[in-house]
Amino acid sequence: MSNLVKDRPAVTGSAPRPGSLRQPRLPRWAPAAFALGSAVVGVAIGLVAGLDSRIQWGLIAALVFVLGSYIASTVVEGRRQAKDRLATSLVWVAFLLAVIPLVSLLYETVKRGSKALNADFLNHSMAGMLDDQAGGGVYHAIIGTLEQVGLATAIAAPIGLLTAIYLVEYGRGALAKAVTFFVDVMTGIPSIVAGLFILSFWILWLDFDYSGFAGAMALAILMMPVVVRSTEEMLKLVPNELREASLALGVPKWRTILKVVLPTAIGGIATGVMLAVARIAGETAPIVLLVFGSKTINNNPFEDPQSSLPYYVYEQWTAGQDASYDRAWAAALVLIAFVMILNLVARGIARWKAPKTGR
């Protein structure tokens, strides 16, 4: 065996090039150093050029960071690694450009909304309050939002779930394609269009009054395609082997869907429904058209105008008084907290109902 190894001819042309196995690398702290240096350079250039906007400083710093990282990596690590660092730098810059406005909006809302947000604000309505008076609350708007979103969910969730079951389990041919097409169209319609549809059909044609239920129907139209799409994707993730095993035991298809498919996908379905609820909770245009607003508490969404958090923010902001501005920011903070709670609930349901792995 040793003789065979000794007699094996040497492979020519396969020797590693000098330095190819030990390519120089930038230290791990280099990106942080580049970011800090770019921030300093961006501020310095902004001050020298007389730029007053911090946004302009940030854009200059981002450009310096991307170019500096690419040039340093090209000199030290070579072109191939420099391209990788360039892509990484662009991803980080895009991430910061997306996060900074969100953080700024949240900071501004908390800063201004905390002035009027207290226990009295959450427990009182605007009955008998003038726009320029301090005080008042958002209790009636919270009740309206909960009732309108609850009614919209009660309408849209079953219809969306059944539509998704049809598309995944039964849908074939032209009808399924038509349903899919209209679901895609409904996903992109503006909220004002849904409000105008309910206004013309429910109020102008059928001669019903403005009410929270009218707004809930418009919100249901906006919610349905989101529920259909999320439920459809969750049902597609259920392995076909589970369906086949159930059918092989003689279980009818409807019972297979009810006892096997839906329990398997229930976590994703619930998450999709909660995200759809969070999506419609802040819609303003249909509420302005259909609910008509009220300063008093109305616990009946089927009769008389009713307020909601988005309408309350719109109403207080258009009042144009310092006290109303504070109430508008506080109501916006309450609405953000409401949507955040819904998202946290959706994540909790997804984690709770996620398939258990491991032993």
From TrEMBL:
It is found in: Cell membrane. InterPro entries: MetI-like (IPR000515), MetI-like_sf (IPR035906), Phosphate_PstA (IPR005672), Phosphate_transprt_permease (IPR051408). Residues 142-346 form the ABC transmembrane type-1 domain. It holds the Pfam family BPD_transp_1. Keywords: Cell membrane, Membrane, Phosphate transport, Transmembrane, Transmembrane helix, Transport. It comes from the Bacteria. It is a multi-pass membrane protein. CDD domains: TM_PBP2. This is Phosphate transport system permease protein PstA. Its main location: membrane. The gene is pstA. Residues 1-24 are annotated as: Disordered. GO terms for cellular component: plasma membrane. GO terms for biological process: phosphate ion transmembrane transport. NCBIfam families: 3a0107s02c. Part of the binding-protein-dependent transport system for phosphate; probably responsible for the translocation of the substrate across the membrane. The chain crosses the membrane at residues 29-49, 55-76, 88-107, 149-168, 180-204, 210-228, 260-281, 328-350. One of its GO terms (molecular function) is phosphate transmembrane transporter activity. It comes from Streptomyces palmae. PANTHER family: PHOSPHATE TRANSPORT SYSTEM PERMEASE PROTEIN PSTA. Belongs to the binding-protein-dependent transport system permease family. CysTW subfamily.
